[in-house]
């Protein structure tokens, strides 16, 4: 772990703990998040975790930048992962089908695997939620196997259906709402990923884990899924 504090704005500091993305980072990120929240207490406006960083947005009327830096330094002295800190494990049902996941065939061709093997490889792993962003409830997860990694589309789609599950490089995610997007789509989940009535709004939070479970078309529909083909929604 290489601790660095960088200025983001007058009232924001970026705490950089690592230089590379890795699943092993998360216990340290969670411990740092807990310690920083306790240190800043009521003077913390927001704490935004990402793959390797934590952005600390603090109340400038209560703390000056030097005081904020000192709180960060004190909070992270002797930092160590806490085994009692852990997120929830979510199982998301996914209907993997070319009509809603047109890049299944592309990933199959790139990897040398059959479409069925691509589905199996994607759904047999448990993924770490690293960060939320891009859209409300959009959780960046990883890491997918290298054989399934694929770059974003050269031309992003103007409209991606809510629930669409995709892969970009070694990340995977599910779109919580209808939005533009350039990820390689491989299926769709009926899960409600963003809900204004839910505490915290997003179904998933950094530190949670996710496993995708392949379901049949009938199960997908029974769970409230929308099977409208992607092309018909464009």
Characterise the protein shown here.
With 234 residues, the chain is an alpha+beta fold. It has 2 domains: 4-75, Gyrase A, domain 2 (2-Layer Sandwich), CATH 3.30.1360; 89-233, Cyclophilin-like (Cyclophilin). The protein has helices spanning 26-40, 65-75, 104-111, 115-123, 217-222, 230-233; strands at residues 4-9, 12-16, 44-49, 53-58, 89-94, 126-132, 139-142, 157-160, 164-168, 171-174, 179-181, 184-188, 209-214. The strands form 3 sheets. A 7-stranded mixed β-sheet has the order 5-13-6-7-10-9-12. Strands 1-2-4-3 form a 4-stranded antiparallel β-sheet, with helices on one face. A two-stranded antiparallel ribbon has the order 8-11. α1 packs across α2. It is elongated, with a radius of gyration of 19 Å. The relative contact order is 0.16.
Proportion of helical residues: 10-25%
Strand content: 25-35%
Sheet of most strands: 7 strands, mixed
H and E order: EEHEEHEHHEEEEEEEEHH
Structural class: alpha+beta
Average of pLDDT = 92
> Assembly state here?
single chain
Largest sheet: spatial strand order:
5-13-6-7-10-9-12
CATH architecture of the largest domain: Beta Barrel
CATH class of the largest domain: Mainly Beta
Q: What is the CATH superfamily classification of the largest domain? A: Cyclophilin-like
Q: Estimate the global geometry from the Cα principal axes.
A: elongated
Q: Examine the coordinates and then state which fold CATH places here, giving the name of the CATH topology of the largest domain.
A: Cyclophilin
Number of strands: 13
Counted by DSSP, the helix tally is 6
**End-to-end separation:** 45 Å
Low-confidence stretches: none
Cα-atom Rg, whole angstroms? 19 Å
């Amino acid at each position: 772990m290489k601790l660095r504090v960088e200025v983001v704005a007058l009232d924001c500091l970026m705490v950089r703990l690592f230089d590379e993305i890795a699943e092993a980072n998360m216990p340290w990120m969670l411990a740092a998040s807990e310690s920083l929240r306790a240190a800043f207490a009521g003077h913390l406006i927001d704490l935004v975790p990402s793959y390797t960083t934590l952005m600390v947005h603090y109340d400038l009327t209560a703390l000056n930048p030097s005081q904020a830096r000192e709180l960060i330094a004190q909070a992270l002295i002797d930092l160590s992962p806490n085994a009692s800190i852990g997120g929830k494990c979510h199982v998301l049902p996914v209907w993997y089908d070319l009509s809603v996941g047109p890049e299944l065939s592309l990933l199959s061709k790139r990897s040398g695997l059959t479409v069925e093997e691509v589905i199996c490889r994607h759904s047999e792993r448990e993924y770490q939620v690293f960060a939320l962003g891009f859209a409300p409830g959009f959780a960046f997860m990883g890491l997918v196997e290298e054989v399934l990694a694929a770059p974003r589309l050269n031309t992003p789609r103007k409209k991606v259906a809510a629930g669409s599950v995709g892969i970009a490089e070694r990340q995977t995610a599910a779109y919580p709402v209808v939005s533009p997007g350039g990820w390689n789509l491989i299926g769709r989940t009926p899960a409600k990923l963003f809900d204004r009535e839910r505490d915290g709004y997003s179904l998933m939070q950094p530190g949670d884990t996710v496993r995708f479970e392949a379901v049949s078309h009938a199960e997908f529909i029974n769970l409230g899924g929308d099977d409208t083909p992607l092309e018909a929604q464009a």
